[in-house]
């Protein structure tokens, strides 16, 4: 176990403990590792494998299935432009063209300064604000070219630092209720969700 920090290792062990099967903690642990590094490094996946009792290949195989988990380096901000039907009708392809021009990268690429990775997304469930963009899984929309430029300026200046933490951090609040450690004795008032029940969200800060 070489890569996760002491603090994250402790949180990972608490997470594993809330599941009847160690391997059930695989995805929460991937989010935890991604919160530490911004993406899932090979070393982190080895740690996750050891903690959950699976092989590193199984961790990679699972992580690579999910859009929210990145097994290759990404920028500090991952910008996802939805081009599905509602957004397409609202001008998503024109917006995407502008975004590529503004950032100087194509879909799938990261800017040279490591600040932005651009993705094209399927429906993000923000159709009511089409055309819709996510930055590190935070919603922005409806956006036009000017709106996107303002968004980039705010991200670059740090004006949105509180609202949009660097990629990998899903939330800054660490959950301490709502899950119970496996094997913990159930007592009066100790129902799931009750204060005092143990729990932790991988990637939650
Ligand atoms: S079609 Fe873009 S968010 Fe649904």
Write a structural description:
With 205 residues, the chain is α+β, with helices and mostly antiparallel strands. The protein folds into two domains: 1-73 and 167-205, Arc Repressor Mutant, subunit A (Orthogonal Bundle); 77-157, Glutaredoxin. It contains seven helices and four strands. It has helices spanning 6-17, 26-37, 42-52, 56-63, 85-89, 92-103, 145-157, and strands at residues 77-82, 116-121, 133-135, 138-140. Strand 3 and strand 4 (138-140) form a beta hairpin. Helix 1 runs antiparallel to helix 2 (26-37) and helix 2 (26-37) packs antiparallel against helix 3.
Cα separation of the termini: 22 Å
Strand order of the largest sheet: 2-1-3-4
CATH uppermost class of the largest domain: Mainly Alpha
List the helices and strands in order. Answer: HHHHEHHEEEH
**What's the number of structural domains?**
2
The count of helical stretches stands at 7
CATH architecture of the largest domain: Orthogonal Bundle
**Helix- and strand-based class?**
alpha+beta
What gyration radius follows from the Cα positions, in whole Å? 19 Å
Principal-axes shape call? elongated
Mean pLDDT: 88
Q: Cofactors and ligands present?
A: FE2/S2 (inorganic) cluster
Query: Which stretches of 5+ consecutive residues score pLDDT under 50?
Result: 185-205
Strand content: 5-15%
Strand elements, count: 4
CATH superfamily of the largest domain: NADH-quinone oxidoreductase subunit E
